């Protein structure tokens, strides 16, 4: 069962990373948010539809993922899917996209943007997919995808808008881009995910 869940996570993250690499321009956030929405609807019933180590961390801290081994399997699958999607985008596109902080943003501003908007994404995931009050709703994928779209529209011009350590690592690696800012896509999203898990438990949302 864990293998099946890991495969679902890898596939969903593959398409998410692929489309981030393939899309550019003002409409890119809508394509990326739409991709996440579709993948959540497609695979959410199997794995929960995380496709993001920060989301997995939040769900784990919330107590809905079992032990740390499950979380590690999810994260490994997500990184594998992101790397595969990134390399395919590099093959298909002459100029594959990848997240990168704005030149005038500075590391602290980019880090803060990644943490805040990952917090928003993880909070939405926790509240629409893991609570009894929202159990069985049909809008969970739309809510999650729309959150990513809005977050990317707001913050992509500051941090690059990854909100996802797997995507923020795989795409620059495949494009042989400057790797000096990748730590922002680990530290910011993981801080945001951990904060979302803690805030959920503090609020006692069920």
Describe this structure in words.
By secondary structure, the protein is an all-alpha fold. Helices cover 73% and strands 0% of the residues. The protein has 8 helices and no strands. It has helices spanning 2-22, 28-47, 53-62, 68-92, 107-129, 140-159, 165-174, 182-203. Helix 1 (2-22) crosses helix 7 and helix 7 packs antiparallel against helix 8. The protein starts with a helix and ends with a helix. The mean pLDDT is 96.
Entry keywords:
206 residues; mainly alpha; 73% helix; 0% strand; globular
Helix content bin? over 70%
Low-confidence stretches: none
Order of helices and strands, N to C? Answer: HHHHHHHH
Strand count, sense and barrel status of the largest sheet are: none
Question: Number of helical runs?
Answer: 8
Rg, rounded, reads: 15 Å
Beta percentage is under 5%
Query: Overall pLDDT, averaged?
Result: 96
What coarse outline follows from CA principal-axis ratios? globular
What is the tally of beta strands? 0
- Distance between the terminal alpha carbons, to the nearest Å? 26 Å
SSE-based structural type? mainly alpha
What's the quick description here?
This protein has 206 residues and is mainly alpha-helical.
Helix/strand layout:
Blueprint: H1 2-22, H2 28-47, H3 53-62, H4 68-92, H5 107-129, H6 140-159, H7 165-174, H8 182-203
């Amino acid at each position: 069962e864990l293998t099946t869940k890991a495969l679902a996570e890898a596939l969903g993250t593959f398409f998410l990373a692929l489309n981030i690499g393939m899309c550019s321009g003002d409409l890119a956030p809508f394509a990326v948010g739409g991709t996440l929405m579709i993948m959540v609807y497609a695979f959410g019933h199997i794995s929960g539809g995380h496709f993001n180590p920060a989301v997995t961390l939040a769900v784990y801290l919330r107590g809905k993922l079992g032990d740390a081994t499950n979380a590690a399997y999810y994260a490994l699958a997500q990184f594998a899917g992101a790397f595969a999607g990134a390399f395919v985008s590099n093959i298909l596109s002459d100029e594959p996209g990848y997240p990168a902080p704005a030149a005038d943003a500075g590391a602290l501003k980019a880090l803060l943007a990644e943490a805040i908007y990952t917090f928003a994404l993880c909070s939405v995931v926790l509240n629409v997919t893991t609570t009894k009050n929202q159990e069985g709703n049909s809008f969970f994928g739309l809510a999650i995808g729309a959150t990513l779209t809005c977050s990317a529209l707001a913050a992509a011009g500051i941090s690059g808008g990854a909100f996802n350590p797997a995507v923020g690592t795989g795409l620059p690696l495949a494009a042989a881009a400057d790797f000096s800012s990748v730590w922002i896509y680990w530290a910011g999203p993981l801080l945001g995910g951990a904060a979302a898990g803690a805030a959920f438990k503090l609020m006692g949302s069920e």
